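INFO batch 0412 | record 1 of 1 | parsing
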Amino acid sequence: MELLTAGAANQDAMFRGLAAGYADSTTTNTSSLIPDAELTRFSRGLLTFAAIMTVLIMITGIIGNLLTIVALLRCPRVRNVAAAFIISLCVADFIFCLLTLPFSSSRFIHGGWIHGDVLCTMFPFMRYGNVGVSLLSIAMITINRYIMIAHYNVYSRIYRPCYIAVMICFCWCLSYGMQLPTLFGVWGKFGLHRKLGTCTIINDANGRSSKTALFIIAFVIPCIVIICCYARIFWVVHSSEVRMRKHAVSRPEGNSNNFINPAAKKKEEKALKAKRNEWKITQMVLAIFLSYVACYLPITIVKVADDEVVYPGFHVLGYILLYFSACVNPIIYVIMNKQYRQAYKTVLLCRRPRLLSSTPANLSSYADKSRDGPSRTMVSQVSFALNPIGVGQRGVRESNNDVFDENGKF
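INFO prediction complete | emitting C-alpha cells
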C-alpha cells in the first residue's frame, strides 16, 4: 500500500514537473505574442479602422510607386537628373508598402506582434532603413535643385551618370549600414519592447541604444540640410528678381523686337518653358518634404506627449499618417507636374512613349552643352521664367545664350 502511495505521489510530481516545463516553454515561445501595450487600450472598432486604412494605404502605395517607377523609366520627357533620385525614393516607399505595412496591419488586427523574434528584428530594420533612404533621397533632390539654380556653372561636373549612381548608393548604404551595429547587438538591438510591446530599437545588455543617434543622422541632419537649401534657393531667386526688375525699369525697351527672327523667338520661348518646368520640379520637391514632415511629426509628438496612451485615437491617426507618407508622393506628382501626369497616362494607356518634340535631335544634353561654355548662373533664367516683367527681347536673348536642354537627360 505504501509502495502504491509512493508511486502515485511520484507520478503526480512527475506530471506537475512536466506541466511546469510545458508552461515555461510556452511562455518562452510566445514571448513575442505579448499584446502591444498601446493596442490593448484601443477599442476593437478603432483597431479595425486602423487595419483597414493600413491595407488601403499599402495597396495605393504599391500601385502608385510602381507606376511612378515604370513611368519615369519609360518616358524620356521626365527622365532627368531629379527623376533618378525620385526613382530611388519610390523604390524605398514601394519596399515599405510591400514588406512593412502587411506586418503593421497584422499588428492592428491581432492586437500585438505574432510573427516571432526573427521578423521582430527585421521589421524595424526595414522600417528605419526605408525612412532613412526616403529622407536622404529628398535631401539629394533638394541639393540638386539648389546647385542647378544657384551654381549652374558646376552643375554638369557634379551630376554625371556615374556620380548620380554613387549618390543613390550612398543613400541606401548609409541608411542601412548605420543600423548594422544595432542589428548585430553591438550598439543597442532590435527586439520586442517589453513596456510598449512593439518591435523597435531597445537597449542591449550594456543598457545602450542607438535610437537617438540614428534619429539625428537620418532625420534631423537631412531636415536641416533641406531647410537651409530651400531658404537659400528662395533668397537667391528673390534677389535675382529684384535686380531684374530694377534693370528693366532703368533700360528702355526700344524697338528690339524688330531684330528678333521667329526661329530665335521660338527658341527663347522653349527655353523659358524649360525654366518654368525646372522651378515646378523644385516646388514639387518642397511639397514632398513638407508632406513627409507632416506625416512623421504627429506620431513623434503623440509618443512624447501621451506616453500613457490616454488618447488612443491620436495614436491611431499618428500611425495612419506615418504610413500615408509612403503613398502620398505619387499623388503630389500628379497634382503638381503636367509632364508626370502625361507619363502616367502613357503607361496606363499602354501608349508608345514620345520623344521630346521640343528638343532637336542633334542637340546633346545640357551637361554636354555646358562643357562647351559654362553658364554664368541659372537664377536669372528661372526668375524670368517665373515672372516675365517686360524685359526687352535683347535682355532675354542675353540671359539665354547658354540655355541647356530643357529636360536634362542623363
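INFO post-check: The radius of gyration is 29 Å.
INFO record closed
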